[in-house]
Amino acid sequence: MYPTTEKEALDALRGNDRELAATAEAMLWSLWCRSGDSEVDGTFRAGVEAMQQRKLAEAEILFSRVVKRAPDFAEGWNKRATVRYMMRHFGDSIADCQETLARNPNHFGAASGQGLCHMSLGQFREAAICFRRALEIHPHLEAVRQNLALAESESSGNDGYLH
């Protein structure tokens, strides 16, 4: 049975059925990408299009408009975090990931994205913490599992803290 609510989708992520988890993940992304305000959603879609075209400065401006107009819309923060990561503005991206997670603690994408930023900064212990958080929410993310293993191996001097 396919999930019909966000809670059911989150529960499905943690289950053993990979196909159902993939369906649940797609449902969550669809839910998370709608603010409920048509003007905000239009600006958001324009930002996504700019990001896909690698017009990163334009995308950052558009997502900044989204977060200003709808500060409780977690995905606006997350998309700006993604653009900032692509621009190699890792500190700003981390801050936006934290804003995303403050609004949506189940946002596995923001947790993973924050981990990638910490990895890029050589902050492997922090990266591992973020990757673990993402995997607690969505255990089927193989790339995140691989990133966690890399972060743990890079911070081998801190293994006691990581485990």
Question: Your description of this structure?
Answer:
With 163 residues, the chain is an all-alpha fold. The protein has a domain at 106-163. Helices cover 75% and strands 0% of the residues. Helix 7 runs antiparallel to helix 8. It is globular. The model is unreliable at 159-163 (pLDDT under 50).
Short description:
This protein is an all-alpha fold. The protein is built from ten helices and no strands. It has a domain at 106-163.
Provide the fold topology.
Blueprint: H1 6-13, H2 18-32, H3 38-52, H4 56-69, H5 74-86, H6 90-103, H7 108-120, H8 124-137, H9 142-154, H10 159-162
Give a quick set of tags describing it.
about 160 residues; mainly alpha; 10 helices; about 75% helix; globular; disordered C terminus
Query: Termini separation (Å)?
Result: 36 Å
Approximately how much beta-strand content do the residues carry? Answer: under 5%
Topology as a string of helices (H) and strands (E):
HHHHHHHHHH
Class based on secondary structure composition and strand pairing:
mainly alpha
Radius of gyration: 16 Å
Q: Let me know the number of strands.
A: 0
Overall, the morphology is globular
Count of DSSP-assigned helices: 10
Average pLDDT, all residues: 94
Q: Residue share in helices?
A: over 70%
Flag low-confidence runs.
159-163
Q: Mind describing the biggest β-sheet?
A: none
